[in-house]
Amino acid sequence: MTTTWQTALKWLGAAFTAALLVGASINGASAHEGKHKIDAKGDKCVRETEFMRRNHMDLLKHQRNDTMRKGIRTTQFSLKGCIDCHASPVNNSVIGTNDNFCQGCHSYAAVKLDCFECHSSKPRPASPATPHPLADAQAGEMQAKAATSGEVSK
Amino acid sequence: MSDVDKNRRQMIGVGVAAAAGLAIAPGVTLLDLAHGRPADQAADSSKRWGLLVDSTKCTSGCSDCVSACHTENGVTSTGHPETDPQWIRKIELTEIRSGRSHSLPMMCQHCAEPPCVDVCPTGASFKRADGIVLVDRHICIGCRYCMMACPYKARSFVHEEHHDQKPDVPRGKGCVEACTLCVHRVDKGELPACVEACQKAGHEAILFGDLNDPNSEISKRIATIATKQVRADLNLNTGVRYQGI
Amino acid sequence: MNYENFRRIEERVFYTLVGVLGLVVLAGAGAWHYMEEHGHIVTGMSNQIVWGLPHVFAIFLIVAASGVLNVASIGSVFGKPIYKARAPLSGLLALAMLGGGLAVLMLDLGRSDRLIVAATHFNPTSVFAWNIILYSGFFGIVATYLWTMMDRRMHDYSKFAGFSAFIWRLILTTGTGSIFGFLVARQAYGTALLAPMFVIMSFAWGLAVFNVVQSAMYRWNGIKLDPAIMRRMKNLLAVFVAAVLYFTIVYHLTNLYFAKQTSFERFMLIDGGVYTTLFWLGQIVIGSLIPLAVLFHPELSQRCGAVFLASMLIIFGAFCHLYVLIIGGQAFPLDLFPGMAATSSFFDGRAVHPYSPSLPEFLLGLGGIGVTFLLVTIAVRVLKFMPQDDFRHLAKAENLTD
After folding, report:
1. Considering only residues 94 to 113 of chain C, which have any Cβ-Cβ distance to chain B shorter than 8 Å?
2. What is the ipTM of this complex?
3. Is A65 inside a domain boundary?
4. What is the pTM of this model?
């Protein structure tokens, strides 16, 4: 390698590092530091947040096979259940802008969202017959609380 | 939490449950009571869902079943009839020699030996244990081989992007789809939309039931009246039968 | 011509080819992207004609790919020396054409982003799934075969590799024909005849493609092919084309005998419009009879470029044949209620389902051909694929007997 090459590479490396640092600081200034604004109804999700962050795709994949192939329609990990709670009150969807629940994290992590090519991203129209994800003794309580505080989505 | 609050919550809970019961009740009809399955139970082969179509009760020009199906499943026209999916259609038939004409609805026949299931390379086209033939759009690659293989032209390919899908019926561009026998309703104990619409309108041309249950209305009718499977020579053992053709 | 001039010509030819083919491939990629973005609504395909022009291109490339390997097989399996010299080129063409054909097929999928799914989920009863295994195996086996032929240390294994490739490709082409042969639903398909017919078609079309490529390569390198070699390959090509014609006649004759197939045959042979024209004029006259006449004529067949012309006509006839088979077969409506006239909003019973190929489909198919020949051009430049005939060996009379 000649000295000209070495100098050129040094400058290139310096410029690249500078760009990286500037880029990181710009990004750091926005909301994305791994924490994301969560649109949600109710107290808590069906599982702990950290678990859901890492494993929601496996839960969904397992559930979709159960539902599709076997007709098991339990509601705990149902996609419709997720959307019912996590749809944004602004555009009534989980996708559409980077402030939406699903799209926000997925666009940050650059993981393509394939679900909503087919699945509706909007919550179901509310009706007493719509099952709730936490379908146990708490269900009636949750519905009652939601009904009284007027948060039921349309 | 005070006792008053607890009681109030319980009362509201009971009230909500009662309202829910009243809302669901109309979906359970006189003909096939309680075929809804608990949510955590898988479909099993003890049941085989089927349809019996009485073509003599079908009138030319009536398409109540078609509108009901497409409304229920969110199938909308995009103004391109050659590429628009159709899950069910009315066929007007005229016998060439005698001139006798009649009409009938044609949808996926939910065969027991489905050619579409045999040819699907990924296994996306599959037959559920209770006989309903479905497309698993998670693994459908859109090769359309099942459309080539279906003797009834039951399947459609989604040629355009769709938005505003019904939450219970996911469907999207690039995958193949067909009549699902309203599996999302059947699993809850309701009738397929086409059957319900035909009954509500008073035509009574389509009957839904369990072919494996000898005491179901559909089995009793098939055992007494002459019924036919379309393209019976192919020996596909269809779940949909017709009378009057 | 001196060496310097020759090199410059060769460079110019190479870069021109790469440039042109590169543009063709780019156009194909653009067409795919357009179809992927907007859905198949931008093509001429519909719920009635579900497989269109891209499939015609893809199946031609795939069938001819297995056939072009014949040249190598005749050399390795049957031990004919003039074919042995051509074996590496034949192997290369087989790989490139299969790659090009599969590229078109994969990119025409409704969900071409799900190729991984196609590779990891297998339905054991599906011919398509079997074919995926057969195609992948073909790549491996032919690559190994090429290695045994081109690496001196591996020459001893080339006979075994050639034999395996020969058997594998017969199974592969049978599988390709069975894609249609196993379809009981449609009157054009659902016959056991289609599998062996595809095998024979592959023989004819593969050899035709090989002739075209070989002639082009020789012309661009300023070499003349020995007439004795040309005569052998010409006769073989004529036999294959005659065999395809035989299968076509048997197919239609048998169909005509069945009352339930009569209306379908009437459609194909008489009033199918474009399909009838393509069948008689494209497939039979231009694709079979004229090439046979040229190849068997005592004077015409000796003319320079006669075999090249015949091969081009055969390839044109092949496209017509596949268009009629694949698209014509879908254009004839399904007969759900024999003896009844049917109408519906889903085009049941309609006389002929219309189809007109769109530009994106054509560009995608052409892109597959571009991929094939781009690979061939680069490979031929980099490695020794040019047939190396040993003329002293050939000059001895007994080596020219087959």
Report:
1. 109-112
2. 0.91
3. yes
4. 0.86
Number of folded domains that form chain A:
1
Residue B18 pLDDT class (50, 70, 90 cuts)? low
Condensed to tens digits (0 to 9), the pLDDT of residues A107-116 reads 989 999 999 9
Nearest to C237 by CA among C295, C161, C154, C318: C295
On whether residue A18 sits in a domain, the answer given is: no
User: What is the C-alpha separation between B133 and B123, in angstroms, rounded?
Assistant: 12
Per-position DSSP letters for chain B, written without gaps between them: --HHHHHHHHHHHHHHHHHHHHHHGGGS-SSSTT----TTSPP-TT--EEEEEEGGGPPTT--HHHHHHHHHHT----S-TTTS--SEEEEEEEETTT--EEEEEEE----SS-HHHHH-SSS-EEE-TTS-EEE-TTT-----HHHHH-TT---EE--S---S-BTTB---TT-EE---TTHHHHTTT---HHHHHHHHTT---EEEEETT-TTSHHHHHHHHS--B-TTGGG----SEEEE--
Rounded to the nearest 10 degrees, the angle between the axes of helix C127-150 and helix C158-181 is: 160
Q: Do B173 and A80 touch (CB under 8 A)?
A: no
List the 138-167 stretch of B: residues with Cβ below 8 A of C: 139-145, 147-153, 156-161
Domains of chain C listed by start with CATH number: 11-384 (1.20.1630.10)
Cβ <8 Å between B23 and A118: no
Query: Cβ contact (<8 Å) for A144 and B9?
Result: yes
Q: Say yes or no to pLDDT of C317 above 90.
A: yes
pLDDT bracket for residue B4 (50, 70, 90): low
- Give C250's contacts (C-beta < 8 A, 6+ positions apart): C193
Can you give the pLDDT at residue B31?
A: 44
**Chains touching B, CB cut-off 8 Å, 3+ pairs:** A, C
Structural contact between residues A120 and B164, judged by C-beta atoms closer than 8 angstroms:
yes
Residue A29 inside a domain? The answer is no
Q: According to the model, what pLDDT value does residue C84 have? A: 84
- Helix (H/G/I), strand (E/B), else coil: A79: helix
* Residue A54: inside a domain: yes
Residue A146 has pLDDT above 70, yes or no: no
- State pLDDT tens for residues B130-153: 999 999 999 999 999 999 999 999
The C-alpha of A47 sits at a distance from chain B's nearest C-alpha, in angstroms, of 19
